[in-house]
Amino acid sequence: MKILGLSALYHDSAAVLLDDGRIVAAAQEERFTRVKHDAAFPCHAVRYCLEEGGVGLDELDHVVFYDKPFLKFERLLETYLAFAPRGFRSFATAMPVWLKEKLFQRKLLEDELKGLGATGSWEERLLFAEHHQSHAASAFYPSPFDEAVVLTMDGVGEWATTSVAIGRGRELEMVKEIHFPHSLGLLYSAFTYYTGFKVNSGEYKVMGLAPYGEPRYVDLILEHLIDLKEDGSFRLDLRYFDYCTGLTMTNRRFDQLFGGCPPRRADEPLTPFHMDMAASVQAVTEEAVLRLTRGLAEEYAIPNLCLAGGVALNCVANGKVLRDGRFREIWVQPAAGDAGGALGAALAAYHQHREQPRTVDRGARDAMNGSYLGPAFAQREIEARLRAAGAVFEVLEEGGLERRCAELLAEEQVVGWFQGRMEFGPRALGGRSILGDPRSPRMQSQLNLKIKYRESFRPFAPSVLAERVSGWFELEGASPYMLMVAEVAEGRRRPVEEEGLSGIDKLQAVRSEIPAVTHVDHSARIQTVHADTNPRYHALIRAFETITGCPVLINTSFNVRGEPIVATPEDAFRCFMGTGMDYLAIGDCLLAKEAQNPALLRDYRTAFEPD
């Protein structure tokens, strides 16, 4: 049975192909169009998935969309009626779009599929899942658990903003929900907006900024903005927010609550006030998630927890839930945001609608294949594409590339690493990565300012050999998807003299043997690298360990600020030639910057709109 899952028309459009319940291919549309968070119908991602699976559209048993447009439209109308006449501008802005295309989404989807070559009737084959059902299915069905509590937290689906499901075998039962406009995701997005970052894009910047500040406003938030109960249920005081009736997230009452400061413009400097705001909303979010998970652990007495939805990408909160110990095992969907909804919709159709059995592979960590589910390129094709782009490269024999790149990294060279299948989800996991030496005190700022062209405070993640993780970090077990934060091991830390340092200046202090991946609070967003899912990346880090004694590399996504992660050798070469990267490894090909034609150098600083 072949099923195509789709997410589209809001943000992070994606397509996923299942064959008898097995994930064959998955990709986000942004990687092909080079438009960050592309919301368009994912025609390029669909073509890739079908090609990877060797199947045509007319051979599919079902195409499944990740939410139900009529329920979303119902929410829009009911929200307007509840707040009328306030919010007319917002309503008038949204209505033409809904009446033109979103309200008639079945026809729109059918037309798009026909445009890709589909024929025949879609009356029985085109299905729609609910938004949180899609998220929950994406978290439970690929997980390694026969039974689990499934917690989904995001901005909003149709009505649900937080939901709980219980998964057993192929069954997945939704048992409770919190509804719009009360939303933990929208609370976090309100602070994202207020601190000057883009909503639905910059939330992770708020998380990265939080350790530079102090959570001074936690009590104020809990007293005025969110009524948080002991079991984690909550309600927001909507008098402080504008997302129901306006075109912004917060209003003047919100500003007045925090001293009258207006929202920061993107071009204005970050101040200690903004850092304190980030620290405060992060602390409140962590407390809310902990209360939710503690309540669920007590209520259901199930030892396993699955997480999905945009809030599940808050890896700091995830790490605290793990260390809290109320659940024995935690599994987070690596594509926890809306892109992962395409996967969940397909899995829900397979297991729930078509009632197909589910088996858990006891020998695997999960069914995501390391999340390496995107396109790959054969060596011959890589060489042809690089030549056509004007690249100069050498081809190394088997094993030689890993040894040479390890030597370069040990010399503090920055290496672009393009290998195997592209990752599905927002994290680069050693398929499309930029790598550096974590032991270098200067590497963090060098990567941010000269290669990523982004804010200096942004932290970098360590990739560590799975078998070495406990020797370097306070983490037992696996974190293959970079969705858990833990502290650097006590024995790897260094005494820090921070007198006179505050805010961003804290970056100057060397906190551990691996300062480039040690955040100012000694934390790190860890990726454990496993030989069975990414043998080449594992071999590279092992070679680096042989040279340096350190089984850790800096891993950041292969892109610049505002650019989607690279998808093709041409994308990688352009990014390489537009940034301060020293070397590029694609397949068995190694490119040195100094060997390239200077005429091909590009100024990448303004190539993409900042995210």
CATH fold title of the domain at 379-600: DHBP synthase
- By CATH, the architecture of the domain at 379-600 is named Alpha-Beta Complex
Trace the largest sheet across and list its strands: 13-21-20-14-15-19-16-18-17
Structural class: alpha/beta
In percent terms, what proportion of residues is strand?
A: 15-25%
The helix fraction, in percent, is 25-40%
Number of helices: 19
Q: According to CATH, what is the class of the domain at 379-600?
A: Alpha Beta
Q: Biggest sheet, in brief?
A: 9 strands, mixed
Report low-confidence residues grouped into runs of 5 or more. none
Query: What number is the mean pLDDT?
Result: 93
Shape descriptor: globular
How far apart the termini lie comes to 39 Å
- Under CATH, the homologous superfamily of the domain at 379-600 reads Carbamoyltransferase, C-terminal domain
Task: Please explain how this structure is put together.
There is one protein chain. The chain is an alpha/beta fold and 611 residues long. The chain has a domain at 379-600: DHBP synthase (Alpha-Beta Complex), CATH 3.90.870. Helices cover 34% and strands 18% of the residues. It has 19 helices and 21 strands. The chain has helices spanning 30-33, 43-53, 69-83, 88-100, 105-115, 131-140, 184-194, 203-209, 218-225, 252-257, 272-300, 315-324, 338-353, 379-388, 400-410, 443-452, 469-472, 535-548, 569-578; strands spanning 2-7, 14-19, 22-28, 62-65, 126-128, 147-153, 160-168, 171-179, 226-228, 234-236, 304-308, 329-332, 394-395, 415-418, 432-436, 461-465, 484-487, 523-529, 552-557, 583-586, 589-592. The protein has a nine-stranded mixed sheet with strand order 13-21-20-14-15-19-16-18-17, sandwiched between helices. Strands 3-2-1-4-5 form a five-stranded mixed sheet. A hairpin with a 6-residue loop joins strand 1 (2-7) and strand 2 (14-19). The protein is globular, with a radius of gyration of 24 Å. It starts with a strand and ends in a 19-residue tail after the last strand. The mean pLDDT is 93.
